[in-house]
Design brief:
single chain, 532 residues, alpha+beta, Rossmann fold, six-stranded mixed β-sheet, six-stranded antiparallel beta barrel, globular, disordered N terminus, cytoplasm, GTP-eEF1A_C
């Protein structure tokens, strides 16, 4: 099945040239324009002559900030991504909904619509979880929810919430999510029995917190929720702080650098404003490299997240989303800078295509850039390279600084989420890793381990099979040239989803890669640039 999906994908890939021909009419090239993005202009009328698949690609191209004329440049707030962790009944939805409702994400019209529906359904005392339930329901029905709905603002930051209702969804979103989480918000219910259930030995809370730590999340905020259900008891709060401190310390977090905030996501206590119901709470504090920070509310704790350090000092890794041929300009690969920087004049290598050439210019939002940095969606013009030489899934890197190479094989820790049968050596599903979509063979099951990501105990050497719920170390071999990296070195290129039967059956983190060394094509432009 995996192979069939892979072949289908290749046929789709081959439609790219027809996109260029069919959409040629859609691109109006302005000869006087000196940037290649402003040379791109198309409207929906010209989409009629283009195949459905190509229309999707065109819309994707337009939706890229690269070609979006409405995006204005300007100093924006820093973006941070937070992942919300908590037991199903901890009040995650209410708390997140409260922040999104009060601080931004949802437009007035949507709120009015929801409030009207709530009143009609007798849910007149409009509560925040309902907002989130509505959004989730719409998302599940396949209505694409504007991702802005999952965002809110603090005085310093634009915050994006990474949230998932179910356990499997959580693992999938954390590993395959486009964005790396900068901070975790652990929500603990203070009610008698609820707290204990949430962090019990086999509790999902523990596993999710472990997963976040393994994926590099080093900042944490603990919100002790439902304080109203304990009559705002200081003794209960202190008891929970003590227990949770031990719990998070075992995972790897330093409790001294973690703010603990007693809240009620439902009533709003200590959410955005200081609560009058807990006069005993003198505020949270956390130790940072820059000194101690203090505050009273959950919003302040989020606003005091240490600004994320984007990996611009690492070598360049830029997975290609698409490659366009633009009249009068040439070949323009498009993608998001994951690590490092890309600059005009740089000699880059594309892997696994093994093509080396010079970057002529780099653009974003119709503007030429002196450099593209992590998080930027850029288009860049390359010399002497045809659209047939490179494609989506290739990785662009600096030829002089740890250039990317083809992966002959790699070892990964894989968690099987839902597969109807058993998985053994020889299984060949499709792997989605960064922008690559390629069938890979499970060539050897090396060992089965007891829990994902923790200091895992080995259960069995060379198991014959693994099934849903199992975690294993596996050697994998791509069916076609592919470029991946170890998660510890380049996180966005070291996590993947295993797709089969039209669903994600497993996810994994790459431990080590065996790379292929071979001479490739070096363009004249690259040779010339190399001599400078």
């Amino acid at each position: 099945m995996g192979i069939a999906e892979e072949q289908k994908h290749n046929i789709e890939g081959d439609q790219q040239n027809s996109l260029e021909e069919g959409a040629a009419a859609a691109f109006v090239v302005a000869p006087e324009s000196n940037t290649f993005n402003s040379a791109l202009h198309f409207d929906d009328r010209s989409l009629d002559s283009v195949s459905h698949h190509s229309q999707q690609q065109l819309r994707q191209l337009r939706s890229l900030s690269l070609l979006n004329p409405t995006v204005t440049m300007g100093k924006e707030k820093t973006h941070v991504n937070v992942v919300v962790i908590g037991h199903v009944d901890s009040g995650k939805s209410t708390t997140t909904g409260h922040l999104i409702y009060k601080c931004g994400g949802i437009d007035k019209r949507t709120i009015e619509k929801f409030e009207k529906e709530a009143a009609e359904l007798g849910k007149g005392s409009f509560k925040y979880a309902w907002v989130l339930d509505k959004l989730k329901a719409e998302r599940e029905r396949g209505i694409t929810i504007d991702i802005a709905l999952w965002k809110f603002e603090t005085p310093k930051y634009h915050v994006t919430v990474i949230d998932a209702p179910g356990h499997r969804d959580f693992i999938k979103n954390m590993i395959t999510g486009t964005s790396q989480a900068d901070c975790g918000i652990l929500i603990i219910a203070a009610g008698t029995g609820e707290f204990e259930a949430g962090i019990s030995k086999d509790g999902q809370t523990r596993e999710h917190a472990l997963l976040a730590f393994t994926l590099g999340v080093r900042q944490l905020i603990v919100a002790i929720n439902k304080m109203d259900s304990t009559k705002y008891s200081e003794a209960r709060y202190n008891e929970i702080v003590k227990e949770v401190s031990t719990f998070i310390k075992k995972i790897g977090f330093n409790p001294k650098s973690v703010p603990f905030v007693p809240i009620s996501g439902w009533n709003g206590d200590n959410m955005l404003e200081e609560s009058t119901n807990m006069p005993w709470f003198k505020g949270w504090n956390k130790e940072t490299k820059a000194g101690a920070k203090t505050g009273k509310t959950l919003l302040e704790a989020i606003d005091n997240i240490d600004p994320p350090v984007r990996p611009s000092d690492k070598p360049l890794r830029l997975p290609l989303q698409d490659v366009y041929k633009i009249g009068g300009i040439g070949t323009v690969p498009v993608g998001r800078v994951e690590t490092g920087v890309i600059k005009p004049g740089m000699v880059v290598t594309f892997a696994p295509a093994n093509v080396t050439t010079e970057v002529k210019s780099v653009e974003m939002h119709h503007e030429q850039l002196a450099e593209g940095v992590p998080g930027d969606n850029v288009g860049f013009n390359v010399k002497n390279v045809s659209v047939k030489d490179i494609r989506r899934g290739n990785v662009c890197s600096d030829s002089k600084n740890d250039p990317a190479k083809e992966s002959a094989s790699f070892t990964a820790q894989v968690i099987v989420l839902n597969h109807p049968g058993q998985i053994g050596a020889g299984y060949s599903p499709v792997l989605d890793c960064h922008t690559a979509h390629i069938a890979c063979k499970f060539s050897e099951l090396l060992e089965k381990i007891d829990r994902p990501f923790s200091v895992s105990k080995k259960l069995e050497d060379s198991p014959k099979f693994v099934k849903s719920g199992d975690s294993a170390i596996v050697k994998m071999v791509p069916s076609k040239p592919m470029c991946v990296e170890a998660y510890t070195e380049y996180p966005p290129l070291g996590r993947f989803a295993v797709r089969d039967m039209r669903q994600t059956v497993a996810v994994g983190v790459i431990k080590a890669v065996e790379k292929v060394d071979k001479a490739g094509k070096v363009t004249k432009a690259a040779q010339k640039a190399g001599k400078k």
